[in-house]
Structures are given as C-alpha cells and as structure tokens.
Write a structure and sequence with these properties.
Blueprint: H1 8-17, E1 24-26, H2 38-45, E2 48-52, E3 62-64, E4 69-72, E5 75-81, E6 90-96, E7 105-109, E8 112-113, E9 116-117, H3 126-141, E10 149-152, E11 170-171, H4 172-178, H5 186-195, H6 204-211
Parallel strand pairs: 1-2, 2-3, 7-10
Antiparallel strand pairs: 4-5, 5-6, 6-7, 8-9, 10-11
Helix pairs in contact: 1-2, 3-5
Length: 216
C-alpha cells in the first residue's frame, strides 16, 4: 500500500525473501508529497494497480468501490471510501482469516494519523473537504471496533497533517480518547481544520502531475 518510488526494490526483495508474490498494489490516494511507486511496482511484478474509482488520472487502473472486498487467501481487505484529505481517499480494513473472523487492523492512508487527521486543503475547497473528512471519520472509521490497530501512511515530519505523533501506529480506542480532532463537533472540526495553515509539500505540483500520469 502507498509504495514510494524509492522503495520499489525493497518491496520486491521482501516479498521474495518470504516466498510471496505481489499481486495487488494499492494507493490510498493520489500522493502530493512524494513520488508514488505504484505503477513501477506493478510493471516489475505483474500485479494489478488499484485506486478508488473516483481517482482522476491519465492512465488505466483497476477501480475500487466503497465496501468492496479483496480476498487474498488468508487475508481479506475491505475498501472504505473516506474522502476529505482528497476526494479519492480510501482506508483498508484488514482481516487475517487464520486469526479469526474479526478485522485486525485499519490502513488509514492520510485520513487518520496518530494524534491528528489528514489536512483537507491540498485539493482546494478546504471547507467542503473538511466537512467530507469529518463525515468519513464519524461514519466510516470511528464506528469500527475500538480494538483495531491503526496504521497511517505518515507520522511526525510529514506536512500532510498538523500535530502528528512520531509513533507509527496506534489503536482506534487510543485515538478516540486522545486524538484532539476526533473530539470536536462538526462545525468546530471544520473551523479548526481550515484555520490551520501548513506549508505545501515541496514540488507539490510536479509530484501531483507525475503521480497522475500527466508528466508531459
């Protein structure tokens, strides 16, 4: 999920060391802060490349829809469309069927971080995006079992959200108790999220165009 261009060989080497085959490559959204390795990884492995169906890109991909399930043998992945950080943002709810029928962890992309949430201003229309993000969190994420482990794409040091912890993972119960943005009502959430002004990622326009397949 969300492979960076600089890490492609590491993905392939890790899979080979475990005797595994990479069959699905998923970007949770069109990244604005780093070059995606998604398409390169699919070319090198023969895997399918997945984005939410609403992604606006200039290349072919396998579309994902809200509620869709990907059966990967021992692992079941459910797609949750969680717009807000970007219109096409998704989270991935993962169940290890060898452990039991209940989901184990949630890959949150840039929707939910440890101690923070994704910024809504990068695509523009910040207030509308902040409202979408609030609804995604309340309706899709916070209604899930509190025992879920949470693995976001970024932690402290990224400009994709304000106030991120340096801790790379959390649990939904911990975030519901300690993440300050999750305790806000809808209007206060929108106000707080649109009041914060963060610097844009370096070379954001170039990175976005490349990740959208619009390099020329």
């Amino acid at each position: 999920m969300d492979p960076q261009a600089s890490d492609i060989d590491a993905y392939i080497q890790f899979a080979e060391s475990r005797g595994m085959k990479i069959t699905h490559v998923i970007d949770t959204h069109i990244q604005a802060d780093h070059l995606s390795g998604g398409r390169s990884l699919t070319e090198k492995t023969g895997a399918n490349y997945y984005l939410h169906q609403s992604a606006r890109v200039a290349f072919a991909f396998t579309p994902l829809v809200d509620g869709q399930e990907l059966d990967l043998g021992n692992v079941l992945v459910q797609v949750l469309h969680t717009p807000g950080h970007t219109p096409e943002s998704i989270c991935l709810l993962v169940t290890d069927k060898t452990r039991g029928p209940e989901p184990w962890f949630l890959l949150t992309g840039d929707t939910l971080f440890v101690g923070a949430v994704g910024r809504p201003d990068l695509p523009g229309h910040a207030r509308e995006s902040a409202a979408e993000l609030y609804d995604s969190l309340k309706k899709k994420v916070l209604s899930l079992p509190e025992t879920l482990e949470v693995y976001p794409t970024h932690f402290s040091g990224s400009v994709c959200g304000a106030g991120m912890s340096g801790k790379p993972m959390s649990t939904l119960a911990f975030e519901k108790k300690w993440n300050p943005t999750l305790r806000l009502d809808r209007e206060d959430f929108i106000e707080v999220m649109t009041r914060s002004v963060l610097p844009r990622p370096a070379e954001m326009v170039t990175i976005l165009r490349t990740n959208q397949g619009r390099e020329q």
